[in-house]
Amino acid sequence: MVDRENVDVIIKMAAAAAGGMDQLKERPICICSCCVISPLTMANQFSKTLTGALEAGVNSDIMVMDHECITNNGLLEDFEAQYRSSA
User: Fold this and answer.
1) 53 is in which domain, residue-wise?
2) Residue 2 has pLDDT above 90, yes or no
3) What is the reported pTM?
């Protein structure tokens, strides 16, 4: 799940496949994975993703990314830009 809009679409699809939102909450068929990046902070994108999943009652997990992973995928630059714009 990449961003809040995608979370909403994925949850609607999962609910349809499960037979409704109540059934999805009872027997989840998807999970939201979010990543904390050093120094134990969460990019805005992942915060919104996690919030959307939790509001819908979808299981979530939070993983820690190593520095190599975030630099190879451009996530560090995205996070730094968000941090600078909010400071």
Assistant:
1) 4-86
2) no
3) 0.62
